[in-house]
Write a structure and sequence with these properties.
three-stranded antiparallel β-sheet, 182 residues, 7 strands, binds zinc ion, 42% helix, 2 domains
Amino acid sequence: MPTKDLMLRRQQQRERMARWRARNPARALAQALASNRKSRAADPERYRIYAREYRLAHLTSCPSCGQPKGATAKFCRHCQKGPRSSRWKGGTCLDRGGYRLVRAEGHPRASSKGRYVREHILVMEKRLGRYLYPNERVHHKNGKRDDNRSANLELWIVSQPAGQRVVGILAWAKEIVALYGG
Ligand SMILES: [Zn+2]
């Protein structure tokens, strides 16, 4: 157990250091990072606890939203997402089926996770000037699922009447003519 006198001296030392850190924030940060590297190698568990306390003591505010962020981070973890992330790959990737996905916030077909839509759908909708109907499919003429050039895409419809009655087929044909103009 440290004596009362020793504890008081340690307290005074901590206060002196705090005042020095307040006067020289940049040097304090550099020094802390340097000593972090040493203590991390010597005692990882203690480093983990220390690093957490250090982060909490050095929170600054996010330039975008004003919420707390780490001292060395550019933005808080909520504002660091998307294009600001160091792992951002342009908002596009391939899905399991080999189709290219693009981020499209607010699109009716946007996935709940990440707000992605298959790019060929967006290209066709841009050409049509409207969203696709549920019975419409976009076909890749050359069979390459990630070749989304407009010239490679074709609009297909998959709806067919359940029965084969002439009246039914005629009604369906009229519907198609009305939709796509003979
Ligand atoms: Zn933020």
